[in-house]
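seq:
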Amino acid sequence: MVFESVEISTPAEESPAVSWPAIAAGAIAAAAMTLVLLAFGAGMGFSAVSPWGNSGISASTFQISTALYLMVVALLASALGGYVAGRLLTRWVGVHTHEVFFRDTAHGFLVWALATVIGAGFLAAAASNIAGGASPGLAPAANVSATAGSGNRLDYYVDALLRPNPAASPNTADLGAARREIAGILTKGIGDGDVAGPDRTYVAQVVAARTGLSQADADKRVSNVIEQAKSDLDNARKAAAKLSLWLTAALLFGAFVASLAATRGGKVRDFNASLTDG
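struct:
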């Protein structure tokens, strides 16, 4: 009787489906390209994408070209990061074509996600200028929001308790104290939506005493300043909201481009590998 030996084959050990070194390399490349493009955009006059402090989008200078430049930044940076990751991935051996396509696409998406995290963590100045608007006009809005419920609101009530009788002469001896008191009144009033009537009357009395204007002219000046402040803050909020929407669109566009570029890099990788094998 002849016994034939039967060799039992075991499946070869597959490489991990996720290559973090390739993802990290692509993400770093994308983040670096983003910073370069932001600096270039700031130099070319796209103030909304300035990575430097004290320079950024304002309600009066926002233009559609700035928003489009955000899309260009997302396109170029994400394409570079995704393509680098796709080329650096090890060729998938014994994997179906559809699975290869999915893995390359997933790596491109992970490159975009990691690059976004890097941008939020290490490019905080640029991220805050873009997402927050980085506008001088937004600073008062931020201060108004921040003071709601803070010690400044309590100061307003303290000042209201110590406020002179309207029939008496308003306290104008100390200009610094008067400015602080009026600033507290305007901060609370604008933060709540409008300055109350008694507060308007008191502020107008102080303005009339300080400037020599008639009570009617002082009332008109106070009303004009309040309306101008409310308009500026509203415009600043609208500009920030508009820019945030464009930023969201740019991020989503970047995710798509990074995934597509990774598949393109994977095809070039597999083509070169096939030439080597041949």
